[in-house]
Amino acid sequence: MRKWILTAIGIILSLALGYLFLEGSRYSQLLGYFGYMSVACTLIPLPTPPYVIALGKVYDPIIVGLAGAIGNCIAAFVEYHLLLWIFSKTELQQHVETNRIFQRFSYYFGRMAFVCLVFTGFTPIPFEPFRFAAILIRYNLPLYLLAVLLGRFPRYYLMALIGEQFQIPTRYLIILLIVSLVIPIIGMLIKHYSSDDDEEI
Question: What is the pTM of this model?
Fold first, then answer.
């Protein structure tokens, strides 16, 4: 149920920013983009490539990259404290922290967490597992935010550069946005119905 609520919030925010991109001024677009990126890459699933590319058509890719990366740092800061607070309110914290496998994982991941976060923040490799792992082991917050910044800035810069160089028509970016919104919903529906089938068996 929570996934559906978060997905619905993500769709509403994505469509709201899409409307702002189509109807708003250049500066309202930049401000809306920064606010959007301050929520994206958290528990709320928000597609970022269409908007990064779209803003790259209007603004310098460096500005787009910095605004997106700094916005993600704000999102990471909030999520870091929120998840730790939620984690501390459950019995799971004691079970996990006293687990030998988790202790060994914390030791090794803590030594290479910065590199893993920067690398996965930049590449198409899923960033979420490493992000959650860093929070779970209470990785140093300033280093965590720095890793997010260093990983996300070049990623968004290159996306914005694509928008600047190729000036991709808005209709194609809208299609990309729709696909980005539909795929997670299809995935959740498949998972939901497959779990129902398993229960019937």
Answer: 0.83
